[in-house]
Specification:
Layout lengths: L1 E9 L4 H4 L14 H13 L7 E4 L3 H12 L9 E3 L16 H10 L15 H23 L18 H4 L17 E7 L1 H14 L10 H4 L8 E9 L6 E12 L1 H8 L2
Parallel strand pairs: 1-4, 2-3, 2-4
Antiparallel strand pairs: 1-5, 5-6
Length: 268
């Protein structure tokens, strides 16, 4: 078995985010001044965690955020970031570059809710979900290959012949710390992606993979929009197989955490 943590971060703000314009895949802007500040803040927040693997969308705003997070990290500053197009934002087709309200009006005119509405030439939520599923398959394979090689079992630091007790300390109340859920978990992946993509990814992990959720978590909170540089965390236990590794346990530790941004604003 391999137990590992997965920390997912939304990229920092861009000028389009500030102006409430859709970027999707076709508008590839760098971070704004506020976005650079947010990336530094979340990098400092996560600075004492050790990341063994790192992935980001290949769009500029996610790449910059991942690089800043790792630059600020005390243990992983030299870690290579894998730029994976599977982590790109959802494509919004002809609505890209236009106000978010324009998309809402298009959805309303079609009699649909905005998250499920697909503009012409855009990606459907189901198509994005297929990318999420493929990324998770790639991630599981990479984590097993990097941390659970056959000659390490069962003595290796991350792999063992049985699931760790209490999912390696991931059960129980949260302490509100950056390392919540990571006690005893030595393999830890960072992923930097996008708001619409993350909403679909979280829904897939909770509804399709059966990840347990925090106590008293409301559905509206679980599947709400993640703020810029908001943080989500999951902990997986995988069973290596001859084909694709299969998750035997998954816990959602927290969703869309943003206290680091509030704390930083309070010191201004």
């Amino acid at each position: 078995m391999l137990t590992f943590g997965l920390t997912i971060v939304r990229h920092g703000e861009t000028q389009y985010n500030k102006d409430k314009l859709l970027q999707g895949q076709g508008v590839d802007l760098p971070l704004s001044e506020t976005g650079l500040w947010q990336a530094e803040i979340v990098g400092n927040y996560l600075s004492d965690l050790k990341f063994t693997n790192a992935f980001s969308s290949d769009l500029q705003r996610a790449r910059q955020t991942a690089d800043i997070i790792l630059k600020n990290n005390l243990h992983s500053s030299g870690l290579e970031v894998i730029r994976d197009p599977l982590l790109k934002e959802r494509s919004f087709g002809i609505a890209e570059g236009r106000p978010v309200d324009h998309l809402k009006n298009m959805a309303s005119a079609a009699g649909q809710s905005c998250p499920s509405f697909t503009p012409p030439q855009g990606e459907t939520p189901e198509q994005v979900k297929l990318r999420v599923e493929e990324f998770m398959r790639v991630l599981f394979l990479r984590m097993v290959a990097d941390h659970c090689s056959p000659d390490e079992q069962p003595e290796g630091p991350n792999c063992s012949g049985a699931p760790p007790a209490s999912h390696s300390g991931t059960d129980g109340p949260l302490a509100g710390r950056p390392d919540d859920g990571l006690l005893g978990v030595s393999a830890h992946a960072l992923v930097v992606s996008h708001g619409a993509y993350m909403r679909i990814a979280v829904r897939h992990l909770v509804e399709d993979l059966g990840c347990s959720v925090p106590a008293n978590a409301k559905t509206s909170q679980l599947f709400s929009a993640c703020p810029n540089t908001g943080v989500c965390r999951f902990v997986f236990t995988l069973r290596p197989t001859d084909s694709d590794p299969a998750p035997v346990a998954c816990r959602c530790v927290f969703i869309n955490r943003k206290e680091h941004l509030k704390a930083a604003k309070g010191t201004d």
